[in-house]
């Protein structure tokens, strides 16, 4: 398999992720985190409780896809970190979303202002 086919295959997998899984990747883009910290970030975003039975199977699936790396902080706590492929998946989603959203110079300027506010 060529490198281009490998990248396309990974993009295809990443494009099949749920919104919940994409949100996990975005959260991990900030810094590596342990499960409960990810859970809190998601709860802040959704404004409701996120069940452990939803979070951890999704984290395990992302690890299995190679988008997230799991390591042991201590005997009871795992840390999750975005891989390069996970970062590429986040960027692919952002690029695709922006390509559909930006239709004229005025909207492009609004997006630039939004990005500037975040920095």
From TrEMBL:
Transmembrane residue ranges: none
InterPro entries: Tscrpt_reg_PadR_N (IPR005149), WH-like_DNA-bd_sf (IPR036388), WH_DNA-bd_sf (IPR036390)
All copies of domain Transcription regulator PadR N-terminal, residue ranges: 24-89
A Pfam family it matches: PadR
PANTHER family, per database record: TRANSCRIPTION REGULATOR, PADR-LIKE FAMILY, TRANSCRIPTIONAL REGULATOR YQJI
Protein name, per record: PadR family transcriptional regulator
């Amino acid at each position: 398999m060529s490198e281009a086919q490998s990248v396309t295959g990974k993009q295809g997998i990443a494009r099949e992720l749920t919104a919940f899984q994409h949100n996990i990747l975005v959260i991990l883009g900030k810094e590596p985190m342990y499960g409960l910290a990810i859970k809190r970030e998601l709860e802040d975003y959704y404004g409701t409780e996120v069940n452990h039975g939803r979070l951890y199977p999704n984290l395990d699936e992302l690890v299995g896809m190679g988008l997230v790396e799991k390591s042991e902080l201590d005997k009871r706590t795992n840390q999750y970190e975005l891989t390069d492929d996970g970062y590429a998946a986040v960027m692919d989603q952002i690029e695709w979303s922006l390509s559909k959203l930006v239709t004229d110079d005025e909207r492009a300027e609004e997006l630039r202002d939004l990005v500037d506010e975040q920095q």
